[in-house]
Every structure is written in C-alpha cells, then in structure tokens.
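Appendix B, record 7
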Amino acid sequence: MNSVAVGVLAVLSLLVIPQLLVCQFHNPTFDDLLLFLNTSIRIYIFTLNVGDKACPYYVKNFLNRTFYEFNYTSGECPLTMETYIADLGNDTMAGYPYMDIHNWFGQPILRKLMRYSNGNEKCALFSYILNKRTHIEVHVRADKFAVRDEKKAFSTCYAVYKTYISQSNELTRECTYKC
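Structure tokens (predicted):
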C-alpha cells in the first residue's frame, strides 16, 4: 500500500471511529438525562477546561421533568459553592437531551447537550459551545469516580471522551481533591 492510501485510511479512521463509538445506538434519551441527574450523591465534572480548579462537582437540590436546581462546588481550599438552575428538554434539531443552565460563568444561558450516557458506569458526556468552540465534559457519579486496579471505573465513558477530544492539541487533566 502506498503512503497516500495509508494517509487516507488514517484520516478516515479519525472520522469514522468516533462515529462508531457514539453511534445512534448510544444516543441518550430525555429519560436518560432525568435518570442520570436523579441522585443525591456528587456528580463530578471531568474536562480539559477546569483550569486551575480541582475537579468540580454538583449535587441535586430539586429535579422534575422540566427543571433542575443544583449546588455546584469548585476550587481547592476553601471550596466555593453556588446554586444554579437549569431548564431541561429535548433538542429535536440536535437529537439530544439538554440542560439550559442559567448564569453559568457569565453566560445568560448555556446549553449542555447530553451526547452519551452509560447507566452501568453512571457517567455521561455533555457538550456545549462557548466562544465559538465546542467543549466536551465527562460527568460521573461519585460512586464510580474511582480507579480500581489502575483502571478508571468509568473506562467506557472515558474512552468515548478521549475519542471526542482526540483531535485537540491540549492535554487531558486528571482530577484530585486536596481538601
């Protein structure tokens, strides 16, 4: 095989493999979003965009089919907590359920689409657009936010996340808490 054919195959694999991992079979439903958010334990946000903060997390205050209120905790010592509200729905154009979070880091409303959900690993991928750039986050419940036998307990979600960000030139951040 010549080098042009190898190059074409390499480019195609970057385009096709992510689609296979997050194919229509895995598209989350609105009920997946509700089920994922309906917990009283911490949900950690694992992302490239956490800056200098330790892994932020959020905890449900209230949830119904259209509204979600949660406490968001971030930072290192001392931790800071803010309460946010979000409208919930199903984006029929995009084909994904969403949270429209009010006043999220200076944005009047920030739409986070649930792009992938894994009930066994208690994790989900959310995407949002900020400053004309798509950001991807893994949200994982505290009971699955662990490393066992040097493997993440949410390894499938993490693999899908890495597939989404594979074309990024940034490095991933691992999360730790110091408090």
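Remarks on this record: Strands lie at 43-47, 57-63, 67-74, 80-91, 96-104, 107-118, 123-130, 133-141, 147-148, 151-152. The CA atoms of residues 8 and 14 lie 10 Å apart.
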